[in-house]
Design goal:
Helices cover 13% and strands 10% of the residues. The chain is mostly loops. It has a two-stranded antiparallel sheet with strand order 1-2. This is Mitochondrial import inner membrane translocase subunit TIM50.
Length: 62
C-alpha cells in the first residue's frame, strides 16, 4: 500500500528512491529503516512511515 501513498505525496517526481521492508533490518521484533546503510547524506533523506518503530534509529528524519 505504500506505493500509492508515495505517488500522492510525490506528484512532481522529486523522490529519488523508495525503500520498503526488504531494505530494513530486523531489530527487537520490528523492521527498522537504517539510513546509515544507504551511504548518503542524512540531511537529504526523509522517512515517511506510519509505524514509529520503523524509524527508531533516525527519528529526526521522520
Amino acid at each position: 500500500y505504500a506505493d500509492p501513498v508515495a505517488d500522492l505525496l510525490d506528484r512532481w517526481g522529486v523522490f529519488r528512491a523508495r525503500l520498503f521492508r526488504e531494505s530494513c533490518v530486523f531489530h527487537r521484533g520490528n523492521y527498522v529503516k537504517d539510513l546509515n546503510k544507504l551511504g548518503r547524506d542524512l540531511q537529504n533523506i526523509i522517512i515517511i512511515d506510519n509505524s514509529p518503530a520503523s524509524y527508531v534509529f533516525h527519528p529526526d528524519n521522520a
